[in-house]
Each structure stands twice: as structure tokens, then as C-alpha cells.
Amino acid sequence: MCDDHGVTRRRFLQGAGAVTAGGILLPSAKLPRRLPLRSGARPMAPDGNAAYSMAMHIHSSFSEQNGSMDGHLYQATQNAVDVCWWTDHDGRLDAFGYRDTVHFTSLTAETGGAGQGKAWDWQQRKSGPLAGSGSGGGIVTNPCSPNDPVTGGSLSLSAQSTGTAAASFGYYANAASAAYNYRDNLTGQSLSIDVLLGSGWADGYLELLIGTSHHQASGGRPAGNYGLSYRFVPSGQGSSTANGNQGVITIPVMPGTPGDWTTITITPSNDIAGLWPDLDYRDFALWELTLSAVSTGDAVSGYFDYLNFGRTNTGGELFSQQQSMMQVLAAKYPAVTQLQGLECSWDLPHCNWFGPDIAVPTYKGVAQTPNGYRKYLENTVLPGIHAAGGLFSYNHPFGTASRALLPAAKQAALLQSAATSLLPTAVFGADLLEVGYVQRAGCDVGTHLGLWDVFSRNAIFLTGNGTSDDHVGTGWKTITNNWVTSAWAASTSMADLMAAMAAGQLWCGSLSGFGTSAASLNLTVDGTCPMGSVSLSTLTSRQLTVQATGLPKDGSLQVLQGAVDYAGTADPTPDTEVIATYTPKRLASGQVTMPVDTSAESFVRTVVLNAKGVIVGASNPVWMLRNTPPNGIPAPRQA
What we know:
alpha+beta
């Protein structure tokens, strides 16, 4: 019946953690294109539904890194992913807690007054053949712009090249400690800054440099990040030129009497539209901001002061704009179904909202504190998601940090801590839980699955999904967190996919390890109770049919069984053991049926291991209970 029995829960968890820690998943050969949506050759479920793959946590030019919708849709096409859910951050759409003004009174500690968000850390940047002297900068108290109501500060910059090659000295606005509170979509946004040029130079410029989004090759230009270099010069004509992926906008600042300041206002999205008309100008983010003096021969000097951001679009307007962009991009990427979600995420915890009638939270009147956010989330946002007919996922349950894997004992402690915190609220009433993370916040996929098992042990019915939380869109298959989720559904419509999500009819896996068109996982109990369902029966033995196709060569599939004993916070650990292991040869027919002891209440699920024993896929559970659970059975899960 089975190739192996009797692997204990402890041995399984320790082994999975050790193997995952020992090697991040490596890219495999290029995957074949996914089959057409209505192809009869797609894997099929017993009820006739087909397998459709989804990227369920994706950030574009409306979030805080250099991703674009264009770049992600190219990746979805290349990796044969059927559906892309856009889940950009609500707080970034709203620019909640963002800075509107910079007075240049400090490189590290300027607060700017109430409502201005946290301070930035202006980090020194140098490039090119700078001379040993004549280059430098920092905050000075004089001169400062008379337009700035906060006196006593400006940014002084100077650069001297050793020849005619460009050499720059400047400062990058690092806002990492301030939650990147200037990074957002550039549409409808203007920046104004006061500029004072030093005297006696011509060969060079002061520069305001904007780093923006990554796009695929277009118009004869290679794939890569785009940038806008605004160059302030003492004479000449204004111009706007595209040098490949960099736009150069030259702005003469005519000299006047000594001490004259000039206010310059720029609208980057307008410049993008003119420079690269083959791309959607709305699909660009304000990702990086740098102020510099650049010498191409002369000793260049000058000052910046009173930087202001004008943001005319509200969160709801940007959300509607994304809908319009989806329609335009659909013609360019017809093989990918685009659906619009939202990540509610100004602070922790983060939750993805899936469904119709999404309303971007405004955060009006919400205290800019972790507690203020959490109350707003619990009392307003999450109930609103369900009231609108939506579902929400509890995201990255161990946090958002990107760090190396922690020792197994530390991961186990974090698992227990997270479970203890989340059990009393039943994970805030979430419908889904992100479990398919190779490495997140120091925890491996085994630890994420173990936390999910704790909730399943307590009859908290959560649909597990695999995610990437990718903000860049340059290599879906080769990034560390490269999991996608597949659904057994009638189509790729939002309604059909959400029905599968609510019923637990999902499985997930690595694009590089279990991501071909042939891959699938499914469970059925007694021929009638599907994966994700909760079945009530007093039988002491039941028949479990496991469907698994497209397994990795020399890999295996493990069947795990976990107790449902409502241990709660008294024992916030998984109680799950491997009860069977199957090789691809044993699953050559695509499925196998085995008896399961149901004398005690339990759930079963499966995982896929590659040849190295690394977890590369996981199914959702099916619960086999003898009594109705205390909080009942959700309608979509009733077998």
C-alpha cells in the first residue's frame, strides 16, 4: 500500500527544517507553457473542475519597490501562471504617514512637524573620478530659501571631476527606517524644490535623480530600471531626451543677483509619457530619490532647499487607475487573467483582500500607531471585507523581515508564540493563511506549515496558499520565495476562483520545483468529501484518495495526519505525523487510495518533496471529524 510508514512528527519537522535551511531552491530547466485555459489536457478534479495557477501576492508600481505591472505580467507569461492578483499596499495608495515637505535642517533627524512622517537618512553617494578636494556637501544654515517657513537649513553640494568624465557627489534619501514614506506611484504627483546655483561654472549640473520602475524590453530598449535625471544648469536651452532607459531633462536656472533662489516644479509622469510613449506612463513608481552635484570638468556647486511633494490622486483614484491599466495591459498579455486585490498593510498584521467591491481604507482619523492601526483593522477593515462579499488572507504570519533562516529551536519558539497570539482570535477571522514561504522572517516552509497545522488542530478552517510577495518582477522562478497557488475551479473568473478559495480547493508549490502544467494535488475522502471540506462521520476507518501528478523526478509525496483535539493555547504546537510516503512510480496512475484511521478526530494533507527532501508543494487539508466543531462548519466546507 505505502512505501514507508512510521515517520514521527518530530522527525518530519526536524528533517524538513534542516533540508530547507541547507539549500534554497535552485532554478530548473525552462518550464513548458501552461496549457490553454479550456484545454482538456489540464489536470482535472473528480467534479470536472480544472487546475488554474495563481500568483496571489504581487506588488507593482503602486507599492514601494521598483516593480511594474508590465514586468510582473511578463513573468506570469514566461512562467505559465494563469492568474495575477494585484495586491498593492493600501497605505501607499493613500500616502498615509508620508512626508510632504523637507526643510533640510538635518541629514538624519528632521521631523518637519506634525503629520510629516518619520525622518529620512540622507546617505552619501559618490561616483566617477572625483577630485580629492572640491567635492563634498551637507547641511548648512546659510544660505537657505526665503520660501521655506522653516529657516536655517539647506543642502550644500559640490563636485569636481579630475577630467571631463562625469563625477558626482550627493545624497540618497534612504527612508527605510521611515517605512519608505515617499515611495508610491508617480501618476498625478509633482515635486517642487528650490535651487540656488553657485557661480563660476558651466561644465556640469545640479541633479535631482528619480529611480523608477523595472520594465520589460520595449521600443528597442533592454529590460531594466528606468530613471529620470533632472539637470539644473546655469545657461542654455531646456531639453528632454531619452537615452535608452534614462530620461534626461535639462532645466536652465538663469542666474540673477547673488542669493537668488529658483523654485522648480516637475511632473515626472508627464515627462515619462513624452520620453517613452510605447509604455504606459502610469506604470512607474517613485522608487529612489537622490540629490547631487555633477562635474564634467568645472567645480560645480549649489544648494537645494524646501522640497515639496504634491499628490493629487487619492487612494481610491489610484485604485481605479489600476483597473484601467489592467484593461490596457490585457491586450499585451492576453494569456494572463488579471484580478485586483488589495493588501491592508499600513502596519502589522498585513491582510490581503480578495473579492469584488474593494474600497481602499482611508485611515482618516486613525492614530499613526501600531495599536491605532490594529483597532482600525479589527473593527472596520476586516468586517468590511466580509460585508462586501470578500475573503481575506492573513499574510506572512511570522512577520515581514528578510533574514537568514533561524536555528530549528528558535523557529519552533516563534511558531508557538505566533500560535498563542493568534488562536484566541481564530486568526482574526481570516479565510486564508500564507503558508508557502521558502524563507520568511527566519522561518522555513516547514515552520509555516507547522503553524497552519496548529490552527487545523483546533478546527480553525484556513485555506493555505503559497506566495512570493514579489515587489520587483524580474525573475519569478529564481527568487527564493517562488511559490504560486493553484485552484480547482470552473474558470479563471473571480467568482469561480473565490469559490475555490473559500472551499479550500487549492494547493501550492514552487515554480522551480513543482510548477509545470502537469502538476496537481487533490484529496477526496470516501469518494465524496473533497479537499478543504469538513466531513462528519462516526466511522473508525475511511478511504482517502490522493491525487498527485507532475511530481519531481526522484521526489516523493507524503501524507500527513494531524489530531483535532482543541488543545488551544495549552499546547500551541502541531501534532502531525507522516502516515504514508509515495514515489512517483507508485503514483504513475495519478492517484492512490489508502485507509485512514478515524477513530479519533483528525485532518490529513500532503506535501511534495524533491529529490533532496526539500518541500516544494503542499495540498490543503480535509478534516474528518466525529462531532460538529464548537464554531460550526462554514457553508463552503460542508461535505
